[in-house]
Amino acid sequence: MEQALAAARAASSKLATEIVILDVRSLIGITDYFVICSGRNERQVATIVEEIEEQLGAEGVKAYRREGDRQARWVLLDYLDFVVHVFHTEEREYYELERLWRDADRIDVGEDGTVEVSRAELGKEGMAGGSA
């Protein structure tokens, strides 16, 4: 969770919008969290991706797989325990991952990197109280 939060905060530092972390542990077995955020254009999407990789790389965390670089409309960074989805705003509206994974617990990350938990289940991991 801490690394997923670090990715969300890195995205926030590059002005990503609508940053959310979905806890999908109880829904699928291939990863624990989805970090989802948006950029207004391809250039911003690429900048957000670079910042996430740089900040996590500084902590010794490297993506296992990276997809979608060429067009920078939906870039996926697979860190195994969590997957980062950086969308162009239009692609995010089209694919609606949050709707597809609506049963997942949700953590909203504010523009300043603050965290708000939407379901009590996440409180078991030290996130109780709504924000950190």
Notes on the protein architecture:
The protein is built from four helices and seven strands; from the N terminus they run αββαβββααββ. The longest helix is centred in the middle third of the chain and has 17 residues, at 42-58. The protein has a seven-stranded mixed sheet. The protein has a single domain (2-125), classed as Beta Polymerase, domain 2 (2-Layer Sandwich). It is α+β, with helices and mostly antiparallel strands. Strand 3 (65-67) and strand 4 form a beta hairpin.
Short description:
The chain is α+β, with helices and mostly antiparallel strands and 132 residues long.
Key traits:
Beta Polymerase, domain 2, alpha+beta, 132 residues, 30% helix, single chain, seven-stranded mixed beta sheet, globular
Query: How would you characterize the largest beta sheet?
Result: 7 strands, mixed
Report the helical percentage.
Answer: 25-40%
The class by helix and strand makeup works out as alpha+beta
| Radius of gyration from the alpha-carbon trace, in angstroms | 14 Å
Widest sheet, order of strands: 3-4-5-2-1-6-7
CATH superfamily: Beta Polymerase, domain 2
Which consecutive residue ranges, at least 5 long each, have pLDDT under 50? 120-132
Q: Distance between termini? A: 13 Å
Q: Based on the structure given, which CATH architecture is correct?
A: 2-Layer Sandwich
Number of helices: 4
Write the layout of secondary structure elements.
Blueprint: H1 2-13, E1 17-23, E2 33-39, H2 42-58, E3 65-67, E4 74-78, E5 82-88, H3 89-95, H4 97-100, E6 105-109, E7 115-117
Helix pairs in contact: 1-2
